[in-house]
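retry 2 of 3: previous attempt timed out while embedding heme C. Reduced batch size to 1 and resubmitted. Inputs unchanged:
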Amino acid sequence: MIARRARAAGIKGRRFSGVMKTRLILAAISLAAPLASAAAAVLPPLVAGCIGCHPASGDSMLPPLAGRDAGAIVAAMDAFRTGGRPATVMDRIAKGFTDNEIAAIAAWYAAQR
Ligand code: HEC
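retry 2 succeeded.
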């Protein structure tokens, strides 16, 4: 992203000085930091185990969980756990969580828009 910005600004490879690079990196960090901490503040630790594959919003290869009914998420997790629903990875993942943990995760996803 930084390299692309530098290119867009007409700064070519070798002439792109170290000072400029440092400034751009600092600018990128100061822009990203508040976003990262805001997301961390509302992201419960349990959900960290899901968010990589099931993002809270945006594109995913999988059916989105965000905004889905909590009961439907719990039911799907139960079906994965008991083998009632075939899965590639979710059967194993679902077995790693207690009922209370799944309920908390499901409530969090249901509250996302
Ligand atoms: C490694 C990636 C990965 C992680 C991590 C992951 N999932 Fe999944 N999830 C999948 C895949 C792939 C499917 C499709 C079923 C399958 O093949 O296992 C799925 C399906 C689901 C479904 C069914 C969705 C639907 O619309 O039918 C639910 C609910 C679900 N996951 C919940 C969770 C929860 C809750 C977590 C965290 C505890 C989690 N997943 C973590 C990959 C993942």
